[in-house]
Amino acid sequence: MSKEEARAYKSLCTEFYDLTKPLASGEEVNFYKEKLGNKTVLEAMCGSGRLLIPLLKVGLKVGGLDYSSEMLAHCQERLKEENLTSTLYEQDIEKIDLPHQYDAIIIAIGSFQLLHPRETALKVLTKMKTFLNPGGQIFIETFIPWEALYENNEYEEEEREVEKNSHTKIHLRSVSHADKFYQFIKSKNFYKKIHQVKTIQSEEEELYVNWYYRYEMVYFLEKAGFKNVELYDVNFSQNPKGIVYVGQNI
Ligand SMILES: C[S@@+](CC[C@H](N)C(=O)[O-])C[C@H]1O[C@@H](n2cnc3c(N)ncnc32)[C@H](O)[C@@H]1O
Q: Which CATH architecture has domain 3-145+210-248?
C-alpha cells in the first residue's frame, strides 16, 4: 500500500468519525474559552470541526489545519450550515507553513499522539513554536491507552458498526498491536459501507497512536523550547481521560 493509500481519515473514516463522535462537550469548550478569551487560535489537526465549530460558536477566533481533504470538506459543510467562517489550511503538520503567527495553538483529543515516530513529533513541536507569537501558548491534550498495557493484551481485534440511515451502515474492523516498550499501538482499519446487503465502498488505513507519560511530555515540550509548562488533568465527557499540557513560547 502506498503512503497515500495507507493514510488515515479518508472518506469512510470521516463518515464513521462524525457518526460516532459528537461535537465537543461544554466542559471542553469552556476549558479553552476561559483560557483563550479573544486570542487568535489555530486548531492544528482540527479534522471535521468537532472542537473548532463549538469554539467558534462561543466567540473564539479559531482557524484550523489538517491534512485530510475529506475531514476538512466536512468541516466546511458544517461551518456553512452554522453560518460560521474560519480559515482552514489543508497541510501536513510535518510541513506546516502558515502566513502568520497565533497567540495559541491547540492539538486536541490525542491527535498529537498520531505523529509517528517520536522524532517526528518532536520536530513538529519545534516547528509549531515558530508559528506562535512571543508569549503564545501551545495546548496539547493526550491520553494513555491503559487497556493496551494489561498483560497479554498487546493484540486486539475489534468490530464496530454504525448506521448511516435505515438502509446504509458503516462497518469497521480494526486489528491492533501494542508495543509497550516503544509506547505505540499500530492499527490497521478496514471500513466497509454497506447498503442493504451490498458493500458499496471500502477503505483501508494504517495508523499509529503513541503514548507519553506526564514527565516525558513535559521534557518533550521543554526540549522543543517551550517554557513554564503547566498540566491540567481533564476528564471531558466523550474524550478519554487525559492531560492538557500548556507550554509557552518565551
Ligand atoms: C482524532 S482526529 C481529531 C480531529 C479534531 N481535532 C477533533 O478534536 O475531533 C485527528 C486528526 O488529525 C489529522 N492528522 C493526522 N495526521 C496529520 C498530519 N500529519 N498533518 C495534519 N493533520 C493530521 C487527521 O486528518 C484527523 O483529522
A: 3-Layer(aba) Sandwich (3.40)
Note the pLDDT of residue 238.
Answer: 86
pLDDT value of position 168: 97
Listed residue (95, 165, 113) closest to 8, CA to CA = 113
pLDDT at 1: 72
- Pocket of ligand 1, candidates 9, 105, 187: which has the most ligand atoms within 8 Å of its Cβ, to mutate? 9
Interval between CA 212 and ligand 1 midpoint (Å):
18
The span from the CA of 135 to the CA of 156, in Å, is 43
Give the Cβ contact number of residue 77 at 10 Å: 12
For the chain, the domains span 3-145+210-248, 147-209
| pLDDT tens per residue, range 98-139 | 999 999 999 999 999 999 999 999 999 999 999 999 999 999
Pocket test for ligand 1, best of 3, 45, 94, 98 (most atoms within 8 A of CB): 45
